[in-house]
Amino acid sequence: MNGTLNKVMLIGHLGDDVKMHYFDGGNCIGRFPLATNEVYINKQTNEKITSTEWHNLVVRNKAAEICEKYLSKGDKIFVEGRIKSRQWQAEDGTTKYTTEIQVTEFTFLTTKKEVDGLKTTQNLEPKGTNFEAPNPAAPENDLPF
To answer: So what's the pLDDT on residue 39?
Structure first.
């Protein structure tokens, strides 16, 4: 293989609302944490164990504005992007490092409000990946994608 590949695909729940940062010239970025879970059974204790991994996500410009408008803490989202590491100097002079997922594509899967509404009105709980709520971005002509 002649080339390399830096691609990430995640399905998880937002750990917080999208935090926006605006720059001169009209550009902006949105940042939010995404939690992915691994569930397994401890063979020795027969106990169900959930391991959560946190990912720092970054979306830019129009995509950031769409995420800020339609997503909130607890919502489930599918994202594709690439891993990017960066460093900066903190106010105390120390060098800080972080690894982020720069999102290139995303799909809203469920919102916390929709799932809570289904549980309350229909007494239903989503089961695995088969549950898919309507896209909160409707009507279709409202978004640029």
So the answer is: 94
